[in-house]
Amino acid sequence: MTAPIPYPWYVAAAAIGRCAITAVVLMLRRQVHQPTIEYGRVVGFSDGTQARVYRETTVDDAAPTEPVTLIVGFRIRWIGGNRVVHWLFRVESICNTVLFVGFPGFRSKLWMADDANHRYRGVYDWDGGHRAHAYVRALWWPLMVISERDSIAYRIVEGTRAATLAGADPLPDRQQWWRPHLSA
Questions:
Q1: End-to-end alpha-carbon separation of the chain, Å?
Q2: Could you tell me the pTM of the whole model?
Q3: pLDDT tens readout for residues 14-26
């Protein structure tokens, strides 16, 4: 598991503030979208879990010059298997859009519902691994408020999200929670 090394809180706060301002501008310009084509898609992961896409968010932008896939995972603390609270989190999570769409390099995100281990995942298209890494370092602060701290993890993979999901690993590996897996 790759845990993020967070920025100091004041650096993260400034980055998230800039992101929120950019996000509002993007939304006012109608450059943020919620396509439904991936809604309901089930993705298997190498650790034996599956997660369902419950939302997708995209921004209008040029094609990435350095495409990477960012996979972020976390477990919300205190709620375990409480399905009502998980449902409420998924409904509320639309408000979290301002925490990522304005970060430099963001292209798209698949929001993945909790799996058998109560882990949520975000599977992102990002332009530039260094930009994705910077996002994760700032994201740690809002995630640590709602998450089990030791559950916050991420992985950056070269190539687009579509290529990452299409190139799913045929061999299971319980340690690789982030790796898409071809189900038997």
A1: 25
A2: 0.88
A3: 999 999 999 999 9
